[in-house]
Model the fold of this input.
Amino acid sequence: MAEQDELAIRSIEGSYFQLPKRLVPTIDLALSGAQPEQVADELGRITQHSCLTSDDTLLLLKRIFNPCDFDVVVVGEGPSARFQFVRRRSATAIDSIKLKFTVLPGSIANYLASVLTFMHQPAFMIAFGVSALVSVTTYVVVFGWHGLSLTLAITNQDLLSTGQVVVQIAIMIFSYLFHEMGHCSATARYGRTVKRVGFGLYWIFPTFFSDVTTSWELTRKQRMVVDVGGIYFQFVISAFLGAACVVFAKSDIVYTLQICLVMNLFSMLISLNPMLKFDGYWLYADWFNISNLRRKSIDFLRRCVGRLLLTENAEIRGCGWALPAYSVASVAYGVLFACYIAFAVISATHSAVRTPQFASHQIIGRIVEGDYLGALVASGSLLISLIPLIFCPVLLLSAFSGIATFARQIARKESGV
Done:
């Protein structure tokens, strides 16, 4: 890790990238609009190669900036020549989230974050850790390990009244927003600001997000604190939910609280999955100091396949074990996920015939009884049950598209393009 820690952070138009510290003077000179020959001389001085040309410097800049979705070209001629950095597309951490809209603007998010920074103080974290351990232990003693299972949540869902469903939704929305405030407050603790907290779709998953792009200006360890801040805050909510379940164990509200607790813990596990661009992905990338982890893992696989097909002769070295491990794991996860989606499509197709008829009777019955809110909730449940049938084929096509793109990359390498 000592070698990897010798990195510096620079930004262009809000996009951040890493580079070796010894190249900082060269990069800064190129960004300032200096002539290519001057940049080449500076690079030669640093690397102790006196015969470097502007073309050599251009190749180096492309290697650094292309993974950040910037093209580097030389514009102008003679004394007016300079390097120009052209953005191919937006390259922020939230680009994978679609249909985004703002829930909390930066001013409100930063104010709340500054108020919550006390939760990152060591004394509070130790006190909370002990309290959470007591809360979870007591919950397991009262309800057993079955009280933490998804089966319990599914069973309890059928026992909820319309009002309890509304309470459940409100608690979960608050929990997810509090998760995002964990990232924001960790960012604020280190003197950085948040652009906004929003909501959007990641693939088919509805998700809240916090734009903490400025955290790239922090050290690796500080970024890791930001990465786990959301899980930490969400665990705070889980501890309170566990304690509330024990207190209201003999009340009907316990069913709602148990569902919220199980869903909260389950969403925490999903967030820690490094194969998806959630908290676990950024934690893995920062732990091993690998910027653009997803893109580098794909490039690693491409080079491995290229060597196997004898279309690429470059040695694969200098990446340690973290990148190859992630690359292999991402392939395995992709295959398993595709199989799961295929199974979900089949299951959804079978249930799609039965569900609408049953749900329509339930909706009509609620309307006849005058329970319009219940009819609205039943309609929402119908739409949710049909989501796999609507979106799973899209995910399958996306997976096949990714495989086709990967194959085209290999074909271009093989043909020398």
User: Anything to note?
Assistant: Confidence is low (pLDDT under 50) at residues 1-5.
